[in-house]
């Protein structure tokens, strides 16, 4: 997208230290990690859909957003502020860029952790021109003073800049150009009420179905010039954890394998063999997912156990287990979040090759199965 546009108006405070990665998650090269790897951003940029019509899946969010944008365009005003929430790799950043592209405006990018001081945000806001999109990634991690400044900016397109210290300090109101804030978060629950209330529209991104991921893969394969056969494509889609980022990454690993060990074509056999090498299991669970399930089942008898205890058992931050790992395990019907703690479902026991105890959750079919 408009890389040149982004910096067209000179350096922006906070933008330099912008770090797209989800902090707290190690930047390994695990092919299944939902978090973008260090060198992966360029490829991701190349594969990002540019327009709403190109964006696969998320029909609800897409339709709602289309209405929000279209009506704003008709009225000739910047659309309401938009919050995008959902697990990593489902297309929040892509969608933010699409919003700017659809509006044909510039996008300014920063992130919650980069906005430590209210001044960082004030400088960013005063740099905006009318109609710009300001994208704040990981908005739940914004520092308190910046957040409070944002309230006023979102509501009245104004900020109060405090000049000086102590009794002589004065607050100078500063007009800012009407803009649209697009916030992205993996934890909408961590947003404060006042901040959440100031967004006119919240798009909740869901995991993708296998057919949707096949569409993503079809597009990526053609962009990357990879010969991907139909059956190979559905196999990758099935093992991508409902996440386009993972689908694209597995596709690239499959391409490597196809080029080195085969004739370059990604057939079903090639895909299976490649995924075997990269230790991607039948359901696409990654090492952390399997570690969490393993600990839950083996060390805690299937639960219930608190998320922090579980996180300690697998040597991870509770936030990582909760935001990166659990959403998919819940979606896949392997793990249930109950008021008393996390519980393994019979599907989890089965997946680990173990016999579930007779009284485990979901035996009566209460827990949804994979891709219901
Ligand atoms: N709907 C989609 N159609 C096609 N490709 C997609 C779609 N959603 C995501 N992708 C691909 O997945 C990659 C990751 O998406 P993106 O960076 O937008 O996710 P994210 O939700 O912002 O993740 P994070 O929470 O880690 O920031 C993109 O590079 C893009 O290629
Ligand atoms: Mg992102």
Automatic annotation (TrEMBL):
Signal peptide: none annotated. The keyword Cell cycle does not apply. Coiled coil: none annotated. Its main location: cytoplasm. Residues 282-372 are annotated as: Head domain (RuvB-H). It is an enzyme of class 3 (hydrolase). GO terms for molecular function: ATP binding; four-way junction DNA binding; four-way junction helicase activity; hydrolase activity. Residues 14-30 have a biased composition (Acidic residues). DNA binds at residues 337, 342. Mg(2+) binds at residue 93. It is found in: Cytoplasm. One of its GO terms (biological process) is DNA repair. The RuvA-RuvB-RuvC complex processes Holliday junction (HJ) DNA during genetic recombination and DNA repair, while the RuvA-RuvB complex plays an important role in the rescue of blocked DNA replication forks via replication fork reversal (RFR). RuvA specifically binds to HJ cruciform DNA, conferring on it an open structure. The RuvB hexamer acts as an ATP-dependent pump, pulling dsDNA into and through the RuvAB complex. RuvB forms 2 homohexamers on either side of HJ DNA bound by 1 or 2 RuvA tetramers; 4 subunits per hexamer contact DNA at a time. Has 3 domains, the large (RuvB-L) and small ATPase (RuvB-S) domains and the C-terminal head (RuvB-H) domain. The head domain binds DNA, while the ATPase domains jointly bind ATP, ADP or are empty depending on the state of the subunit in the translocation cycle. During a single DNA translocation step the structure of each domain remains the same, but their relative positions change. This is Holliday junction branch migration complex subunit RuvB. It comes from Prauserella marina. The gene is ruvB.
């Amino acid at each position: 997208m408009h890389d040149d546009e982004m910096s067209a108006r000179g350096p922006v405070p906070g933008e330099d230290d912008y770090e797209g990665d989800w902090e707290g998650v190690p930047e390994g090269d695990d092919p299944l990690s939902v978090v973008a790897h260090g060198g992966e951003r360029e490829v991701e940029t190349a594969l990002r859909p540019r327009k709403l019509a190109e964006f696969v899946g998320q029909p609800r969010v897409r339709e709602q957003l289309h209405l929000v944008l279209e009506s704003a365009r008709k009225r000739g005003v910047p659309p309401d502020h938009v919050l995008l929430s959902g697990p990593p790799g489902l297309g929040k950043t892509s969608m933010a860029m699409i919003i700017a592209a659809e509006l044909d405006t510039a996008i300014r990018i920063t992130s919650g952790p980069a906005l430590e001081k209210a001044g960082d945000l004030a400088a960013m806001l005063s740099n905006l021109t009318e109609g710009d999109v300001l994208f704040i990634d990981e908005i739940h991690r914004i520092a308190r003073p910046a957040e409070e400044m944002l309230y006023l900016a979102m509501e009245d397109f104004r900020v109060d800049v405090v000049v000086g210290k102590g009794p002589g300090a004065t607050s100078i109101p500063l007009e800012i150009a009407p803009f649209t804030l697009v916030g992205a978060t993996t934890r909408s629950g961590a947003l404060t009420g006042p901040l959440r209330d100031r967004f006119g529209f919240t798009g909740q991104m869901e995991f993708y179905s296998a057919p949707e991921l096949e569409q993503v893969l079809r597009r990526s394969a053609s962009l990357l010039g990879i010969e991907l056969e139909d059956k190979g494509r559905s196999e990758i889609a099935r093992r991508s954890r409902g996440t386009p980022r993972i689908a694209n990454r597995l596709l690239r690993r499959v391409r490597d394998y196809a080029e080195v060990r085969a004739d370059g074509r990604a057939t079903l056999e090639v895909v299976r063999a490649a995924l075997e090498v990269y230790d991607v299991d039948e359901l696409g669970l990654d090492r952390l997912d399997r570690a969490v399930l393993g600990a839950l089942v083996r060390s805690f008898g299937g639960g219930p156990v608190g998320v922090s205890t579980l996180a300690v058992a697998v040597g991870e931050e509770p936030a990582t287990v909760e935001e990166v790992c659990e959403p998919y395990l819940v979606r896949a019907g392997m793990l249930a979040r109950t008021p008393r703690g996390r519980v393994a479902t019979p599907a989890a026991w089965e997946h680990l090759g173990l016999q579930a105890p007779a009284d485990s959750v979901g035996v009566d079919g209460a827990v949804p199965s994979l891709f219901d």
